[in-house]
Every structure is written in structure tokens, then in C-alpha cells.
Amino acid sequence: MRLVFASNNAHKLAEVRAIMPEGVEVLSLHDIGFEADIEETGTTLAENSLIKAETVYDWISAFNSQHSTLILDGVFADDTGLEIDALDGEPGVYTGRWAERETGVHLDEMATYAANRVKALRELDGKSNRGCQFKTVITLIRQGKTVQVEGIVRGTMTTVEHGEGGFGYDPIFMPDGYDKTFGELPASVKNGISHRARALQELVKLLN
């Protein structure tokens, strides 16, 4: 089975490929030659996930009508948000560009991750409630049918960064039941309990 994951994020791709069962090949947008930017105009994670999946699915359909060379079994896309209790669910759909929305300054990927963590710690400074959750919504379009699944992991925002693994907010997110952040936990552990892992586990059930 060959599926397109509507992303070029190397960290996400590695996580997805590690979780997918044997026999499922996951292609990136780069792998299929999709180079356009997808404007995420949704107000919820589910809406943005759907926008990405539909955009890529329609592009593949148009490409195949002219070239008939992309042999694929479906497209899936995810949208993930960090929802912090004390901040009324922020940053939510703006998780990936939270700091950029505040400063208007566009940074490279690693600098963006760092700036987002700084902002999260600053916003929570002095707050006793540091509860939060990561939520991933995946949209699968396959054989003309669209289905959505989700995965959630609850946790706590730490007061300082711990660990250099993972990406994004991982060094300041400690999942419930663990004394280490996602940035400290090995990928083999994180890939079993993360929000994306849980959503992907639901996705895999749909592929059987």
C-alpha cells in the first residue's frame, strides 16, 4: 500500500514511518512532486487537516488525469495543536507559528521551535496550572471516502527545557505518568504514547 502523507516535515515523516506497519509505504509531498504551499485557513485542527488532505488529493487527481503516473492508495494529512489549560486552549491551531504571529518575524524551522518554547514558558510564568494536551487530527481520503481520527495525550508544561530529542514543544512537555519530557524520552517510547502515535494507531485500523 502506498499512501501520501501531506507533509515535508522530516521529523513528522520519521515518526509516521516508524509507526506505520510493514507493507505500508509513506510518501512525502516532495516524493510526488507537490511543491505548492497549502494555506491553512481553518479555525479548528479538524478543518486544517481536511484542507490539507483535500488539496493534495485534488492535485493528485488532476495530475493523474494528464499523466497517469502516480499509483497511490490514498492521502492522509494531520494537524496538531498544543492546548494549554491556563491559556484557554491556546495556541491551538496556531501552535506551529505561535511566536511568529506575535513578532511578525519569520524564522527557520529550528529557530521557530525555540521561539515557540520561549513564548510558552513566558506565558505560563507564575501560573500554578500548567496542565495541557497535545491533540492530533488525521484526515484520510481513500477510495473516494473521507474519514477523520484523532489522538490526545495529556501532560504538563515544565518550567525549563529538558532534553534535546524530538521537536517543537517536546523539551517542555511532560506526558502524564512519566517523569521525563518528550525531549528526553527515546523515540521508541514517545512513538507509543504520543498524540500523533495514537491518531496513527486509529488510522492503521482503517487500513485493514
What descriptors fit this protein?
alpha/beta; Maf protein; six-stranded mixed β-sheet; 6 strands
Structural description of this entry:
The structure is a single chain. The protein has 208 residues and is of the alpha/beta class. The chain has one domain: Maf protein (Alpha-Beta Complex). Helix content is 37%, strand content 22%. It has a 6-stranded mixed sheet with strand order 2-1-3-4-5-6. The longest helix has 22 residues, at 45-66. The protein is globular. The N and C termini lie close together (11 Å).
- Listing every helix as H and every strand as E from the N terminus to the C terminus, the arrangement reads EHEHHEHHEEEHH
Shape: globular
From the 3D structure, determine the CATH topology: Maf protein
* Helical run tally: 7
Number of DSSP E strands: 6
Task: Give the number of domains.
Answer: 1
CATH C-level class is Alpha Beta
Tell me about the largest β-sheet.
6 strands, mixed
Structural class: alpha/beta
Overall radius of gyration: 17 Å
- Overall mean pLDDT stands at 93
Helix fraction, binned, reads: 25-40%
